[in-house]
Every structure is written in structure tokens, then in C-alpha cells.
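Researcher: Quick test of sequence recovery. C-alpha cells follow.
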């Protein structure tokens, strides 16, 4: 099964987001997957963080692995944070969303960014994947 679903995103951006997700999954040698990507408000991200992670703040993404064997997951991406981050890091909004797609797929794989060592490992990998697509 190879399924990607994008909800709440600008329809013009979906082909680029889909291409990025497929590339990241292939790069990580994940052949079977079913992932839904949903863009939601910062308030909803904050609510989900409080409920599921016991963290009272807004994050760029929240990833939930639903089934490890089938690599099924639900990913929620902020609709506002990528706009701010794009300006901050010198990306386009589309590039920042693609970067977060990669980031969230790595979270589904088990990568974390909660401590400096794991964060460096995760960001090195996502930067490498991103550069393969955009540079």
C-alpha cells in the first residue's frame, strides 16, 4: 500500500508536498505506507500537544504512528508556524512545508528532537533529504 492524503493545504502545494513525502519515504527505504497530512490551526496544535504530549505550547508538527508494521500515521502541521519559519530561515512557504513533511516522516520512524544529541541526528538527516530535493 502506498497512500498519502493531504487535507487543509493549498491545492497548488499538494504536488510538491507529495513529491517530497515520496522522496523521503524512498530515501528511508519505506515501501509500504499510509500517511495522512492535515494542516490545522496553531490553537488546534496547542490543544493536541496538551492532550497527547502534556506540553502546553505550539509546535510545527505533531506525528502519530498508528501502525508500525504498515507504517501508517497521522501528521498534523501548523498552518501559521511554517509562514514564520520560512521568513526566519530564508525559505519559501512551500519549501518550509516540504521541510516539515520530511521532519514529520522522520518522527513517524522514531526520530526525536527532544535532546541535543537526537535533535542533531534528526536534523542532519532531514537536511540531507531536503538538499537532495531542493538544491
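Model:
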Amino acid at each position: 500500500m502506498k497512500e498519502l492524503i493531504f487535507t487543509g493545504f493549498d491545492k497548488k502545494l499538494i504536488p510538491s508536498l507529495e513529491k517530497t513525502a515520496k522522496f523521503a519515504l524512498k530515501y528511508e527505504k519505506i515501501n509500504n505506507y499510509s500517511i495522512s497530512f492535515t494542516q490545522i490551526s496553531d490553537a488546534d496544535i496547542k490543544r493536541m500537544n496538551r492532550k497527547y504530549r502534556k506540553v502546553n505550547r505550539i509546535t510545527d508538527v505533531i506525528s502519530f504512528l498508528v501502525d508500525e508494521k504498515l507504517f501508517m500515521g497521522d501528521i498534523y502541521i501548523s498552518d501559521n508556524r511554517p509562514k514564520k519559519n520560512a521568513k526566519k530561515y530564508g525559505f519559501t512557504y512551500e519549501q518550509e512545508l516540504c521541510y516539515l513533511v520530511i521532519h514529520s516522516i522522520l518522527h513517524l520512524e522514531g526520530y526525536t528532537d527532544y535532546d541535543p544529541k537526537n535533535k542533531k541526528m534528526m536534523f542532519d538527516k532531514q537536511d540531507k533529504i531536503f538538499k537532495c530535493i531542493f538544491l
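The chain is about 55% helix and 20% strand.
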